[in-house]
Amino acid sequence: MAGTVLLVEDEQSIGALVQAYLERDGHQVVWVRTGEAAMAELTRHPVRLVILDVGLPGVDGLEVCRQVRSRSSVPIIMLTARDEEADRVAGLEVGADDYVAKPFSPRELMARVKAVLRRAEPPGRDDVLQLQDVTLRRRAHEVDVAGEPVELTGKEFDLLVLLMENAGAVHSRGLLLDRVWGMEYPGETRTVDVHVGQLRRKLGRPDLIRTVRGAGYKAMRG
Ligand code: CA
What we know:
Elements: E1 4-8, H1 12-24, E2 29-32, H2 35-42, E3 47-53, H3 61-69, E4 76-80, H4 85-93, E5 98-101, H5 106-120, E6 128-131, E7 134-137, E8 142-145, E9 148-150, H6 154-165, H7 173-181, H8 189-203, E10 209-212, E11 216-219
Parallel strand pairs: 1-2, 1-3, 3-4, 4-5
Antiparallel strand pairs: 6-7, 7-8, 8-9, 10-11
Helix pairs in contact: 1-5, 2-3, 6-7, 6-8, 7-8
The chain binds calcium ion.
């Protein structure tokens, strides 16, 4: 698969370890130490995944994530020093796809990398999903509304696929968490609400995904 993994980490020991594991799994890696360098690299290479430390000198990881997201839907995994819900929600709100809290095991990070790439680059199917004036092209990872392209994060895209595939059916927050995020996020239903809110805002179609009180969410056919 084309594209490099962009690793943004200022700590030498962590960066070297993560780079070694990524390369062992067959990834091409570009490792930079600052947010400014990361933004510059993104314009130079086709990047298929960004691994982004929150605590960076200068522009911090959350701000880098926000800037990347304003121009690209490349998957982003954040490395956060604190395993606190406030930090994770802040990261979700700026568009990260997943988190690994430090200290982490390299194996855990590699499992997340695999999962994020699998969701972002599904094999085989090239179906186009259509609902109202929203068109989603699965393989191209593109969404447009009335012909205008909309940039979504990997998780937002996965969530929209699931809702559009089963339009008219109610999905509980628990089911959406399980299907889109996997079981590593038990009980964090706020995550689903944040992403649905972002989808509504980005698509500019607040009625496309309806909240069903006490039950969950459903996509509306029209
Ligand atoms: Ca750091």
